[in-house]
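Risk mitigation, structural track. In case the binding assays with NAP fail to produce interpretable data, a predicted complex structure has been prepared as a fallback.
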Amino acid sequence: MPHQNYIDGQWVAAKSGQTFESLNPATGEVLGTVPKSGLQDVDAAVEAAARAFPKWRAVPAPRRAEILFRAGELLVRRKEDFARMVTREMGKVIVEGRGDVQEAIDTTYYYAGEGRRMFGFTTPSELPNKAALTFRDPIGVVAAITPWNFPTAIPSWKLMPALVAGNTVVFKPASDTPILGAMLVELLEEAGLPPGVLNLVLGPGGVVGEALVKHPGVSLVSFTGSTASGTEVAVEAARQVKRVALEMGGKNAIIVLDDADLDLAVEGILWSAFGTTGQRCTAASRVIAHQAVRQQLLDRLAPRAAQLKLGNGLDETVNVGPIINAAQLQKVHGYTEVGQREGAVLLLGGERATEGELSRGFFYRPTIFDQVRPTMRLAQEEIFGPTLSIIPVRSLEQAIEVNNGVPYGLTTSIYTADVNRAFQAMRDLTTGLVYLNAGTIGAESHLPFGGTRKTGNGHREGGWTALDIFTEWKTVFVDYSGRLQRAQIDLVPQTGENP
Ligand code: NAP
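Fallback model:
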Protein backbone atom coordinates (compact mmCIF):
# COMPACT_ATOMS: atom_id res chain seq x y z
CA MET A 1 0.00 0.00 0.00
CA PRO A 2 1.44 3.44 -0.88
CA HIS A 3 1.92 5.73 2.09
CA GLN A 4 1.58 9.44 1.54
CA ASN A 5 2.29 12.86 2.93
CA TYR A 6 -0.39 14.34 5.18
CA ILE A 7 -0.94 18.03 4.54
CA ASP A 8 -3.87 20.14 5.75
CA GLY A 9 -5.89 17.03 6.61
CA GLN A 10 -5.35 15.33 3.22
CA TRP A 11 -3.21 12.31 2.30
CA VAL A 12 -1.29 13.41 -0.80
CA ALA A 13 1.59 12.31 -3.04
CA ALA A 14 4.75 14.42 -3.38
CA LYS A 15 4.14 17.25 -5.87
CA SER A 16 6.93 15.81 -8.05
CA GLY A 17 5.29 12.35 -8.00
CA GLN A 18 8.62 10.86 -6.92
CA THR A 19 8.77 8.01 -4.42
CA PHE A 20 11.24 5.82 -2.55
CA GLU A 21 11.02 2.43 -0.86
CA SER A 22 11.16 1.43 2.77
CA LEU A 23 13.05 -1.83 3.34
CA ASN A 24 13.13 -4.44 6.10
CA PRO A 25 16.80 -4.47 7.24
CA ALA A 26 16.55 -8.12 8.32
CA THR A 27 15.25 -9.50 5.02
CA GLY A 28 15.57 -6.86 2.32
CA GLU A 29 11.78 -7.08 1.77
CA VAL A 30 10.17 -3.91 0.36
CA LEU A 31 7.62 -2.78 2.96
CA GLY A 32 6.08 0.04 0.98
CA THR A 33 6.57 3.04 -1.24
CA VAL A 34 6.49 6.58 0.14
CA PRO A 35 6.68 10.10 -1.32
CA LYS A 36 10.10 11.57 -1.95
CA SER A 37 9.08 15.11 -1.17
CA GLY A 38 10.65 18.40 -2.17
CA LEU A 39 10.50 22.08 -1.39
CA GLN A 40 6.94 22.60 -2.66
CA ASP A 41 5.65 19.92 -0.31
CA VAL A 42 7.46 21.55 2.60
CA ASP A 43 5.96 24.94 1.69
CA ALA A 44 2.44 23.48 1.54
CA ALA A 45 2.85 21.76 4.91
CA VAL A 46 4.28 24.82 6.68
CA GLU A 47 1.53 27.04 5.23
CA ALA A 48 -1.15 24.58 6.41
CA ALA A 49 0.39 24.47 9.89
CA ALA A 50 0.61 28.28 10.03
CA ARG A 51 -3.06 28.63 9.01
CA ALA A 52 -4.15 26.12 11.66
CA PHE A 53 -2.13 27.73 14.48
CA PRO A 54 -4.43 30.59 15.61
CA LYS A 55 -7.43 28.26 16.04
CA TRP A 56 -5.47 25.45 17.69
CA ARG A 57 -3.76 27.73 20.21
CA ALA A 58 -7.22 29.04 21.18
CA VAL A 59 -8.50 25.56 22.05
CA PRO A 60 -8.21 25.17 25.84
CA ALA A 61 -5.31 22.87 26.72
CA PRO A 62 -7.53 20.32 28.55
CA ARG A 63 -9.61 19.97 25.35
CA ARG A 64 -6.46 19.53 23.24
CA ALA A 65 -5.39 16.89 25.73
CA GLU A 66 -8.55 14.85 25.17
CA ILE A 67 -7.35 14.12 21.64
CA LEU A 68 -4.08 12.85 23.07
CA PHE A 69 -5.93 10.62 25.51
CA ARG A 70 -7.83 9.11 22.59
CA ALA A 71 -4.55 8.66 20.68
CA GLY A 72 -3.10 6.87 23.73
CA GLU A 73 -6.09 4.52 23.83
CA LEU A 74 -5.78 3.76 20.11
CA LEU A 75 -2.07 3.05 20.55
CA VAL A 76 -2.80 0.64 23.41
CA ARG A 77 -5.28 -1.21 21.19
CA ARG A 78 -2.86 -1.33 18.25
CA LYS A 79 0.32 -1.87 20.23
CA GLU A 80 1.09 -5.23 18.66
CA ASP A 81 0.51 -3.99 15.07
CA PHE A 82 2.80 -1.04 15.69
CA ALA A 83 5.40 -3.21 17.45
CA ARG A 84 5.54 -5.67 14.58
CA MET A 85 6.02 -2.83 12.13
CA VAL A 86 8.79 -1.39 14.34
CA THR A 87 10.56 -4.75 14.08
CA ARG A 88 9.96 -5.01 10.34
CA GLU A 89 10.91 -1.47 9.41
CA MET A 90 13.65 -0.70 11.97
CA GLY A 91 14.86 -4.22 12.82
CA LYS A 92 14.87 -4.23 16.65
CA VAL A 93 13.67 -7.49 18.20
CA ILE A 94 9.95 -7.74 18.87
CA VAL A 95 10.17 -7.42 22.66
CA GLU A 96 11.98 -4.10 22.12
CA GLY A 97 9.49 -3.16 19.39
CA ARG A 98 6.79 -3.46 22.05
CA GLY A 99 8.91 -1.35 24.38
CA ASP A 100 9.27 1.37 21.72
CA VAL A 101 5.48 1.55 21.36
CA GLN A 102 4.94 1.39 25.12
CA GLU A 103 7.19 4.43 25.49
CA ALA A 104 5.01 6.26 22.95
CA ILE A 105 1.91 5.24 24.93
CA ASP A 106 3.42 6.44 28.22
CA THR A 107 4.51 9.70 26.62
CA THR A 108 1.11 10.31 25.03
CA TYR A 109 -0.72 9.79 28.32
CA TYR A 110 1.81 11.88 30.22
CA TYR A 111 1.37 14.92 27.95
CA ALA A 112 -2.38 14.41 27.85
CA GLY A 113 -2.15 14.86 31.64
CA GLU A 114 -0.12 18.04 31.13
CA GLY A 115 -3.18 19.52 29.42
CA ARG A 116 -4.65 19.98 32.91
CA ARG A 117 -1.38 21.09 34.51
CA MET A 118 0.99 23.25 32.47
CA PHE A 119 1.33 25.31 35.62
CA GLY A 120 2.56 28.87 35.65
CA PHE A 121 3.62 30.91 38.68
CA THR A 122 1.93 33.64 40.66
CA THR A 123 4.19 35.73 42.82
CA PRO A 124 4.00 38.95 44.88
CA SER A 125 4.75 42.18 43.09
CA GLU A 126 7.13 44.68 44.73
CA LEU A 127 4.34 47.28 44.46
CA PRO A 128 1.00 47.34 46.29
CA ASN A 129 -2.25 46.60 44.48
CA LYS A 130 -0.41 44.89 41.69
CA ALA A 131 -0.41 41.18 40.75
CA ALA A 132 2.27 39.22 38.87
CA LEU A 133 1.65 35.93 37.09
CA THR A 134 3.05 33.84 34.25
CA PHE A 135 1.59 31.78 31.40
CA ARG A 136 3.09 29.32 28.96
CA ASP A 137 2.40 30.38 25.36
CA PRO A 138 2.77 28.08 22.35
CA ILE A 139 5.50 29.11 19.93
CA GLY A 140 3.96 28.53 16.49
CA VAL A 141 4.87 26.04 13.78
CA VAL A 142 7.22 23.33 15.04
CA ALA A 143 9.39 21.22 12.73
CA ALA A 144 9.86 17.77 14.33
CA ILE A 145 12.79 15.91 12.74
CA THR A 146 13.42 12.40 14.06
CA PRO A 147 15.85 9.46 13.65
CA TRP A 148 15.05 5.83 12.80
CA ASN A 149 16.18 4.09 15.99
CA PHE A 150 13.01 4.77 18.04
CA PRO A 151 10.48 5.26 15.27
CA THR A 152 7.41 5.62 17.49
CA ALA A 153 8.89 6.70 20.85
CA ILE A 154 11.02 9.64 19.67
CA PRO A 155 8.31 11.20 17.47
CA SER A 156 5.96 10.97 20.47
CA TRP A 157 8.49 12.87 22.64
CA LYS A 158 8.14 15.78 20.22
CA LEU A 159 4.61 15.61 18.82
CA MET A 160 2.75 15.16 22.10
CA PRO A 161 4.24 18.05 24.12
CA ALA A 162 4.21 20.30 21.03
CA LEU A 163 0.53 19.63 20.35
CA VAL A 164 -0.77 19.77 23.90
CA ALA A 165 0.99 23.11 24.35
CA GLY A 166 -0.94 24.53 21.36
CA ASN A 167 1.68 24.47 18.60
CA THR A 168 1.06 23.11 15.12
CA VAL A 169 3.59 20.69 13.66
CA VAL A 170 5.31 19.56 10.47
CA PHE A 171 6.78 16.12 11.14
CA LYS A 172 9.67 14.67 9.12
CA PRO A 173 10.57 11.13 10.21
CA ALA A 174 13.79 9.38 9.18
CA SER A 175 13.91 7.97 5.66
CA ASP A 176 14.66 4.51 7.07
CA THR A 177 11.34 4.42 8.98
CA PRO A 178 8.81 6.51 7.04
CA ILE A 179 5.90 4.04 7.27
CA LEU A 180 5.87 4.18 11.06
CA GLY A 181 5.83 7.97 10.84
CA ALA A 182 2.77 7.76 8.59
CA MET A 183 1.09 5.23 10.91
CA LEU A 184 1.51 7.53 13.91
CA VAL A 185 0.03 10.48 12.02
CA GLU A 186 -2.92 8.35 10.82
CA LEU A 187 -3.59 7.42 14.43
CA LEU A 188 -3.54 11.05 15.59
CA GLU A 189 -5.86 11.97 12.72
CA GLU A 190 -8.26 9.24 13.85
CA ALA A 191 -8.00 10.53 17.44
CA GLY A 192 -9.47 13.81 16.18
CA LEU A 193 -6.71 16.32 15.39
CA PRO A 194 -8.17 19.07 13.17
CA PRO A 195 -6.72 19.53 9.63
CA GLY A 196 -3.42 21.39 9.46
CA VAL A 197 -2.53 20.89 13.13
CA LEU A 198 -0.19 17.99 12.34
CA ASN A 199 1.38 17.56 8.90
CA LEU A 200 3.71 14.89 7.60
CA VAL A 201 6.35 15.33 4.89
CA LEU A 202 8.41 12.29 3.94
CA GLY A 203 11.72 12.57 2.12
CA PRO A 204 15.47 13.07 2.45
CA GLY A 205 16.90 15.02 5.37
CA GLY A 206 19.16 17.04 3.08
CA VAL A 207 16.07 18.30 1.20
CA VAL A 208 12.96 18.14 3.39
CA GLY A 209 14.73 18.50 6.75
CA GLU A 210 16.95 21.33 5.56
CA ALA A 211 14.02 23.15 3.92
CA LEU A 212 12.04 22.95 7.16
CA VAL A 213 14.93 24.35 9.16
CA LYS A 214 15.36 27.23 6.70
CA HIS A 215 11.65 27.96 6.27
CA PRO A 216 10.79 31.37 7.80
CA GLY A 217 7.34 30.03 8.72
CA VAL A 218 8.86 27.49 11.13
CA SER A 219 9.42 28.99 14.59
CA LEU A 220 11.02 26.04 16.39
CA VAL A 221 13.05 23.06 15.22
CA SER A 222 13.07 20.01 17.47
CA PHE A 223 15.73 17.65 16.14
CA THR A 224 17.00 14.25 17.23
CA GLY A 225 19.80 12.61 15.27
CA SER A 226 23.53 12.67 14.78
CA THR A 227 25.74 15.47 16.05
CA ALA A 228 26.88 16.10 12.45
CA SER A 229 23.34 16.76 11.16
CA GLY A 230 22.32 18.55 14.36
CA THR A 231 25.22 20.96 13.98
CA GLU A 232 24.03 21.86 10.47
CA VAL A 233 20.53 22.36 11.84
CA ALA A 234 21.85 24.66 14.56
CA VAL A 235 23.89 26.74 12.11
CA GLU A 236 20.92 27.24 9.76
CA ALA A 237 18.53 27.98 12.61
CA ALA A 238 20.94 30.54 14.09
CA ARG A 239 20.79 32.63 10.91
CA GLN A 240 17.14 33.32 11.65
CA VAL A 241 17.53 33.33 15.45
CA LYS A 242 15.15 30.39 15.38
CA ARG A 243 14.57 28.29 18.47
CA VAL A 244 16.23 24.90 18.19
CA ALA A 245 16.30 21.92 20.54
CA LEU A 246 18.89 19.26 19.72
CA GLU A 247 19.22 15.68 21.00
CA MET A 248 22.30 14.13 19.41
CA GLY A 249 25.04 11.51 19.71
CA GLY A 250 26.41 9.61 22.68
CA LYS A 251 29.46 7.65 23.83
CA ASN A 252 28.06 6.13 26.98
CA ALA A 253 29.97 4.13 29.54
CA ILE A 254 29.42 1.56 32.25
CA ILE A 255 31.90 1.84 35.12
CA VAL A 256 32.55 -1.41 36.98
CA LEU A 257 34.38 -0.88 40.27
CA ASP A 258 36.34 -3.52 42.20
CA ASP A 259 33.46 -4.13 44.67
CA ALA A 260 30.76 -4.49 41.99
CA ASP A 261 28.31 -7.39 41.75
CA LEU A 262 29.85 -8.77 38.56
CA ASP A 263 26.92 -10.99 37.57
CA LEU A 264 24.60 -8.01 37.79
CA ALA A 265 27.08 -5.90 35.83
CA VAL A 266 27.27 -8.52 33.06
CA GLU A 267 23.48 -8.43 32.66
CA GLY A 268 23.53 -4.63 32.44
CA ILE A 269 26.42 -4.63 29.95
CA LEU A 270 24.82 -7.22 27.64
CA TRP A 271 21.54 -5.29 27.58
CA SER A 272 23.13 -1.86 27.19
CA ALA A 273 25.80 -2.77 24.61
CA PHE A 274 23.99 -5.28 22.39
CA GLY A 275 20.29 -4.48 22.95
CA THR A 276 18.87 -2.73 19.87
CA THR A 277 22.12 -3.93 18.22
CA GLY A 278 23.87 -1.02 19.96
CA GLN A 279 21.76 1.45 18.00
CA ARG A 280 20.45 3.48 20.92
CA CYS A 281 21.61 6.96 21.78
CA THR A 282 21.93 5.51 25.30
CA ALA A 283 23.76 2.33 24.27
CA ALA A 284 26.93 1.53 26.24
CA SER A 285 29.90 1.41 23.91
CA ARG A 286 32.52 1.58 26.68
CA VAL A 287 33.04 -0.47 29.81
CA ILE A 288 35.44 1.29 32.16
CA ALA A 289 36.57 -1.63 34.29
CA HIS A 290 38.65 -1.55 37.46
CA GLN A 291 41.82 -3.52 36.73
CA ALA A 292 41.22 -5.71 39.82
CA VAL A 293 38.05 -7.21 38.31
CA ARG A 294 38.51 -6.66 34.56
CA GLN A 295 39.56 -10.22 33.73
CA GLN A 296 36.84 -11.82 35.87
CA LEU A 297 34.29 -9.56 34.21
CA LEU A 298 35.47 -10.48 30.72
CA ASP A 299 35.48 -14.20 31.56
CA ARG A 300 31.76 -13.90 32.34
CA LEU A 301 30.83 -11.39 29.65
CA ALA A 302 32.48 -12.72 26.49
CA PRO A 303 30.86 -16.22 26.50
CA ARG A 304 27.45 -14.68 27.13
CA ALA A 305 27.89 -12.18 24.29
CA ALA A 306 29.03 -14.99 21.99
CA GLN A 307 25.78 -16.87 22.68
CA LEU A 308 23.47 -14.02 21.66
CA LYS A 309 21.26 -15.19 18.81
CA LEU A 310 21.16 -13.00 15.70
CA GLY A 311 18.22 -12.96 13.31
CA ASN A 312 14.88 -11.56 12.26
CA GLY A 313 13.45 -9.85 15.32
CA LEU A 314 9.97 -11.24 14.70
CA ASP A 315 11.34 -14.56 15.97
CA GLU A 316 10.83 -14.27 19.75
CA THR A 317 14.00 -16.30 20.45
CA VAL A 318 16.28 -13.81 18.67
CA ASN A 319 18.35 -11.46 20.87
CA VAL A 320 20.02 -9.19 18.32
CA GLY A 321 18.45 -7.81 15.14
CA PRO A 322 20.11 -6.30 12.09
CA ILE A 323 21.86 -2.99 11.64
CA ILE A 324 19.59 -0.43 9.98
CA ASN A 325 21.18 -0.24 6.51
CA ALA A 326 24.22 -1.06 4.39
CA ALA A 327 25.97 2.25 5.01
CA GLN A 328 25.71 1.88 8.78
CA LEU A 329 26.93 -1.74 8.55
CA GLN A 330 29.95 -0.49 6.63
CA LYS A 331 30.57 2.20 9.24
CA VAL A 332 30.44 -0.33 12.10
CA HIS A 333 32.89 -2.64 10.34
CA GLY A 334 35.10 0.36 9.59
CA TYR A 335 35.45 0.86 13.36
CA THR A 336 36.55 -2.76 13.78
CA GLU A 337 39.38 -2.00 11.35
CA VAL A 338 40.15 1.24 13.17
CA GLY A 339 40.33 -0.61 16.51
CA GLN A 340 42.71 -3.23 15.10
CA ARG A 341 44.92 -0.56 13.58
CA GLU A 342 44.99 1.31 16.88
CA GLY A 343 46.24 -1.81 18.68
CA ALA A 344 43.14 -2.74 20.71
CA VAL A 345 42.66 -6.48 21.29
CA LEU A 346 39.70 -7.98 19.41
CA LEU A 347 38.13 -10.53 21.76
CA LEU A 348 34.88 -11.31 19.99
CA GLY A 349 33.04 -10.72 16.70
CA GLY A 350 34.42 -8.07 14.39
CA GLU A 351 32.68 -9.40 11.29
CA ARG A 352 29.45 -9.50 9.37
CA ALA A 353 27.18 -12.49 10.04
CA THR A 354 26.07 -14.07 6.78
CA GLU A 355 25.13 -17.67 7.50
CA GLY A 356 21.76 -18.87 6.10
CA GLU A 357 18.95 -16.29 6.24
CA LEU A 358 21.29 -13.73 7.80
CA SER A 359 22.85 -13.11 4.38
CA ARG A 360 19.67 -11.29 3.33
CA GLY A 361 19.99 -8.65 6.04
CA PHE A 362 22.58 -6.34 7.59
CA PHE A 363 23.79 -8.45 10.51
CA TYR A 364 26.99 -7.84 12.48
CA ARG A 365 28.33 -10.01 15.28
CA PRO A 366 28.49 -8.59 18.80
CA THR A 367 32.04 -7.28 19.03
CA ILE A 368 34.26 -6.75 22.08
CA PHE A 369 37.63 -5.01 22.12
CA ASP A 370 39.86 -5.23 25.20
CA GLN A 371 42.81 -3.04 26.24
CA VAL A 372 41.29 0.06 24.69
CA ARG A 373 43.00 3.30 25.64
CA PRO A 374 40.76 6.30 26.38
CA THR A 375 42.30 8.38 23.60
CA MET A 376 41.69 5.82 20.84
CA ARG A 377 39.04 6.65 18.23
CA LEU A 378 37.28 3.47 19.32
CA ALA A 379 36.86 5.04 22.77
CA GLN A 380 36.01 8.56 21.60
CA GLU A 381 33.68 8.33 18.59
CA GLU A 382 30.07 7.21 18.40
CA ILE A 383 29.85 3.92 16.45
CA PHE A 384 26.13 3.19 16.82
CA GLY A 385 26.47 -0.56 16.49
CA PRO A 386 27.20 -3.68 18.58
CA THR A 387 30.81 -2.75 19.36
CA LEU A 388 32.02 -2.57 22.95
CA SER A 389 35.38 -1.28 24.18
CA ILE A 390 36.83 -2.38 27.51
CA ILE A 391 38.98 0.36 29.07
CA PRO A 392 41.04 -0.65 32.13
CA VAL A 393 41.42 1.84 35.02
CA ARG A 394 42.91 1.77 38.54
CA SER A 395 40.55 3.98 40.58
CA LEU A 396 37.15 5.63 40.72
CA GLU A 397 38.77 9.00 40.04
CA GLN A 398 40.40 7.70 36.87
CA ALA A 399 37.12 6.06 35.80
CA ILE A 400 35.28 9.37 36.17
CA GLU A 401 37.97 11.20 34.23
CA VAL A 402 37.79 8.65 31.39
CA ASN A 403 33.99 8.75 31.39
CA ASN A 404 33.91 12.55 31.16
CA GLY A 405 36.73 12.79 28.64
CA VAL A 406 34.67 12.30 25.48
CA PRO A 407 32.84 14.82 23.29
CA TYR A 408 29.41 13.50 24.35
CA GLY A 409 27.55 13.39 27.66
CA LEU A 410 24.30 11.45 27.58
CA THR A 411 24.36 8.58 30.07
CA THR A 412 26.70 6.76 32.47
CA SER A 413 26.18 3.79 34.73
CA ILE A 414 28.25 2.72 37.69
CA TYR A 415 28.33 -0.62 39.48
CA THR A 416 29.48 -0.44 43.09
CA ALA A 417 28.23 -1.44 46.54
CA ASP A 418 29.94 1.49 48.25
CA VAL A 419 27.53 4.35 49.03
CA ASN A 420 30.34 6.88 49.43
CA ARG A 421 31.82 6.15 46.03
CA ALA A 422 28.34 6.05 44.48
CA PHE A 423 27.56 9.57 45.71
CA GLN A 424 30.98 10.83 44.62
CA ALA A 425 30.25 9.45 41.15
CA MET A 426 26.74 10.96 41.04
CA ARG A 427 28.32 14.32 41.81
CA ASP A 428 31.28 14.16 39.43
CA LEU A 429 29.95 12.33 36.35
CA THR A 430 29.10 15.02 33.80
CA THR A 431 26.38 13.25 31.83
CA GLY A 432 22.69 14.13 31.67
CA LEU A 433 21.68 10.73 33.06
CA VAL A 434 23.38 8.55 35.68
CA TYR A 435 22.39 5.01 36.67
CA LEU A 436 23.52 3.23 39.78
CA ASN A 437 23.77 -0.58 39.57
CA ALA A 438 21.79 -0.65 36.31
CA GLY A 439 22.85 -0.33 32.66
CA THR A 440 22.88 2.88 30.62
CA ILE A 441 19.35 2.25 29.32
CA GLY A 442 16.11 2.84 31.17
CA ALA A 443 14.80 6.37 30.69
CA GLU A 444 11.17 6.95 31.68
CA SER A 445 8.84 9.31 29.87
CA HIS A 446 7.98 11.50 32.87
CA LEU A 447 11.58 12.47 33.68
CA PRO A 448 13.99 14.88 31.96
CA PHE A 449 16.06 13.27 29.20
CA GLY A 450 19.05 14.76 27.40
CA GLY A 451 22.77 15.20 27.51
CA THR A 452 25.70 17.52 27.99
CA ARG A 453 28.51 18.63 25.65
CA LYS A 454 27.87 17.63 22.00
CA THR A 455 24.90 15.46 22.92
CA GLY A 456 22.58 18.44 23.15
CA ASN A 457 22.15 22.16 23.44
CA GLY A 458 20.89 22.28 27.00
CA HIS A 459 17.26 21.27 26.59
CA ARG A 460 15.64 18.24 28.17
CA GLU A 461 12.90 16.24 26.48
CA GLY A 462 10.57 14.08 28.57
CA GLY A 463 8.58 15.14 31.60
CA TRP A 464 7.66 18.71 32.41
CA THR A 465 10.99 20.00 31.08
CA ALA A 466 9.91 19.35 27.48
CA LEU A 467 7.34 22.12 27.94
CA ASP A 468 10.24 24.55 28.23
CA ILE A 469 11.14 23.61 24.66
CA PHE A 470 7.64 23.87 23.24
CA THR A 471 6.39 26.98 25.06
CA GLU A 472 7.52 30.49 25.84
CA TRP A 473 6.93 32.19 29.14
CA LYS A 474 4.73 35.24 29.18
CA THR A 475 4.86 37.37 32.33
CA VAL A 476 1.76 39.45 33.06
CA PHE A 477 1.46 42.34 35.53
CA VAL A 478 -1.98 43.52 36.62
CA ASP A 479 -1.96 46.92 38.30
CA TYR A 480 -5.23 47.52 40.15
CA SER A 481 -4.07 50.61 42.10
CA GLY A 482 -5.73 53.05 39.71
CA ARG A 483 -2.60 55.24 39.54
CA LEU A 484 0.84 55.24 37.93
CA GLN A 485 3.22 53.03 39.91
CA ARG A 486 6.85 52.90 38.80
CA ALA A 487 8.79 49.68 39.52
CA GLN A 488 12.23 50.26 41.09
CA ILE A 489 11.43 53.99 41.51
CA ASP A 490 8.38 54.30 43.73
CA LEU A 491 9.90 52.52 46.70
CA VAL A 492 7.18 51.57 49.14
CA PRO A 493 8.05 51.99 52.86
CA GLN A 494 8.32 48.72 54.76
CA THR A 495 5.71 49.73 57.34
CA GLY A 496 2.87 47.55 56.12
CA GLU A 497 0.81 50.64 55.29
CA ASN A 498 -0.91 50.70 51.93
CA PRO A 499 0.05 54.11 50.49
P1 NAP B 1 20.72 11.62 11.26
O1 NAP B 1 21.32 11.04 10.05
O2 NAP B 1 21.31 12.85 11.83
O3 NAP B 1 19.17 11.86 10.91
C1 NAP B 1 18.24 12.31 11.86
C2 NAP B 1 17.09 13.00 11.14
O4 NAP B 1 17.57 14.21 10.56
C3 NAP B 1 16.52 12.19 9.97
O5 NAP B 1 15.14 12.45 9.85
C4 NAP B 1 17.29 12.77 8.79
O6 NAP B 1 16.63 12.56 7.55
C5 NAP B 1 17.33 14.24 9.16
N1 NAP B 1 18.42 15.01 8.56
C6 NAP B 1 19.59 14.56 8.05
N2 NAP B 1 20.33 15.62 7.61
C7 NAP B 1 19.61 16.74 7.86
C8 NAP B 1 19.82 18.14 7.62
N3 NAP B 1 20.92 18.59 7.04
N4 NAP B 1 18.87 19.01 8.01
C9 NAP B 1 17.75 18.58 8.62
N5 NAP B 1 17.47 17.27 8.83
C10 NAP B 1 18.40 16.36 8.47
O7 NAP B 1 20.68 10.56 12.45
P2 NAP B 1 20.21 9.04 12.39
O8 NAP B 1 21.27 8.24 11.72
O9 NAP B 1 18.83 8.98 11.84
O10 NAP B 1 20.13 8.66 13.92
C11 NAP B 1 21.22 8.20 14.66
C12 NAP B 1 21.79 9.32 15.52
O11 NAP B 1 20.75 9.84 16.34
C13 NAP B 1 22.86 8.86 16.46
O12 NAP B 1 23.89 9.80 16.47
C14 NAP B 1 22.17 8.84 17.83
O13 NAP B 1 23.01 9.00 18.93
C15 NAP B 1 21.22 9.97 17.67
N6 NAP B 1 20.12 9.86 18.62
C16 NAP B 1 20.12 10.70 19.70
C17 NAP B 1 19.11 10.61 20.65
C18 NAP B 1 19.10 11.52 21.85
O14 NAP B 1 18.07 11.65 22.47
N7 NAP B 1 20.21 12.16 22.20
C19 NAP B 1 18.10 9.67 20.49
C20 NAP B 1 18.14 8.82 19.38
C21 NAP B 1 19.15 8.94 18.45
P3 NAP B 1 16.98 11.25 6.66
O15 NAP B 1 16.63 10.08 7.47
O16 NAP B 1 16.11 11.44 5.48
O17 NAP B 1 18.45 11.33 6.36
